[in-house]
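Suppose a colleague, Dr. K., hands you the sequence of a protein chain of 326 amino acids and asks what its three-dimensional shape might be. Before reaching for any lab equipment, you can write down a predicted structure in token form. Begin with the sequence itself:
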Amino acid sequence: MPNFDTGHYFLTTLAPIKHGSASDERGVEVSHIERLRTTLAILPTALQSPATEQIGINSPFARDRHTHLCRFMVLDDVVYNGRPRSDAIVNALTGKDPLVPQKVDRLNCAYLMFAADFDAVKEEGDPLPETLTPAEQDAVRDAYARRLWQTMNLELREIYDNCVGFNEVSDADGFARYLGRCQVETTMPFNDYWIRPPKLHGLPVTGLIALVAVPALVTLIGFLWWLFGAPNSRWSAGPARSGSWPPLSRPGSPIATLYGMAIGPCRRATMPICRRCSSRSTYSSTSRTLRSRARARIPRPCMRISAHSSRVTSRTTRWHPASVRA
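The predicted structure, expressed as tokens, is then:
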């Protein structure tokens, strides 16, 4: 049951308030609900703030050391949450008129709500239990009600004298039975305590380190291989000849694949762009590379071959491959 959680009991009761009127302490005839509101308004609170400490009168619930917190409240009626949602298309097909008022839940009278959070023990000094059966929970509730009657029966009489059925209560056992009849189930208790610390799972530090270190290591290997061992690097003298590839950078090897995926786009972005055809050159601008290009007669994308001569000319660089000295 949600009434019990980790050694603590969460009690919620709703006592119906009487209709009619009664005389207050001044002898004036007032309604029972007005008389109850006045009694609750002058009930002292706990000495938990500088303003309440100046009063010097402690709450009567502080006389029981097992009470954590409690509250009285007059419930006049339930809150209307609006009409239940419905589909407009379904309403049109079924002929349901959305203007017809629906049934609204209302209370037949005002209720006095009492909510308390206390230790689920029967006697002073008992350890907090981890589990309780429904019968044991009822016994814990009755024991708490009897302790309240023994410590603050005068205040309880003045409060509950405005409620229906309280005129039958004359002792602690009667008050325990009365609270049992007025009890409603606590569906969502709030508890920030535990009997033993819970087993909390730590962060997977090893997994997080690996998640960060592996991509960083792959990037570092690719960068170093681009500097010192990658094919067609910036220190290469010309086109790679057969057998000149480093062992790990041969085409099809894992390092070459990683190099092409990680470093290739970066190197392509830094290559020089031809001003005429806006194409990126994959050859170095050193004289040694130019000589090798002249021998191989490899034209640039923007080069054209003259119709009257076999010489290859360039629109941008204006140099003749045959004029380059070997």
